[in-house]
Design goal:
By secondary structure, the protein is α+β, with helices and mostly antiparallel strands. The chain is built from 8 helices and 20 strands.
Amino acid sequence: MTRYEDTITFPEMSLGTRRELKVRRYGQRGARPKAYLQTGLHADEIPGMLVLHHLIGLLNDADDAGLIHGEIVLVPVANPIGLSQHIYGTLLGRFEVGSGNNFNRNYADLSDVVAERVADKLGDDADANTAAIRAELTRAANALKFTNDIEFLRISLLQLAIDTDLCLDLHCDWEAVLHVYLGTPCWPDGADLSAQLGSRATLLATKSGGHPFDEAIAGPWWALAERFPDRPISPACLAATVELRGSTDVGDEMAAADADNLYRMLVRRGYIDGDPGPLPAPLCDATPLTGVETIKADRAGVVAYCRHPGDVVQAGDTVAIVVDPLESDAARARHDVISQVSGILYARRGDRMARPGQTLCRVAGATPLADRMGRNLLSD
């Protein structure tokens, strides 16, 4: 067997407290290829924790049979800070309550420092360039300093994943179908991931805004290729944020199926010996993240949805009705919410009370929208 567990202990930021990250490893440390999977970075997004529980069982069996190549690293609970934030009985795991910082934003961008260090090392051999860049990414990540526990968390996760070939950050949305966020340079290489997982919307962007975890891991490769166009630099890391449907889509049968798909992906990519079976037919084409319409309420009221996650809508369709329960005229109380684009409604808000400007749902269109260009493409 080649599996073992590491523990990363947080520095004591509050008297009498102790936090830990548990890291499960398979294969040989430093071997290639290397895959990294984490979940629970937004600590109140639970589906991925059950999925990795099932994946660990599959990997244990593969390890017992001597089937694992390279290195596979799992962080089944990536945010012990967020898991401690229970306010009046509700787990609040998306933002750090002391600062208001989103746990999946503001990761270090290592592109500039690595570019300076590799400028004189890059040549005409793509594999040698990959090795040189990967070594400097590791060196730069290991040199990062922290001043508080959220920075320690970000740096620790970055150090675990910065040298990977495959990086999957498992999340979920409010109410949603399974969808995937990928860097544009990772397409079409990531088409097998989208198809294997059964993604219903695969959304591409080079800079989505806020510098989330997956872009911190894969983004330096794209930036360096742009910085040194005369040198062969491959997008050597496929990093993706995988949204495992909605927050209440937690169950053994569904999680086991998702774990099976992740396992087949690892087999298909050469981390595990075996037959992954035929690649499933894709359920969607990749579309630009700039083509997503974020449909917002223009008034307060009760939300009655007309369309569900996974529905294909056309521009002009009513996707929801906002009802003012204080209006005595029943007809005047109802206000249609209209989609301006054609595409798949892939996510909608879980609560049913709207306020002006509040996001209600998202529709993935195929054409970039003018009002989305040059803006932060992710909600905070």
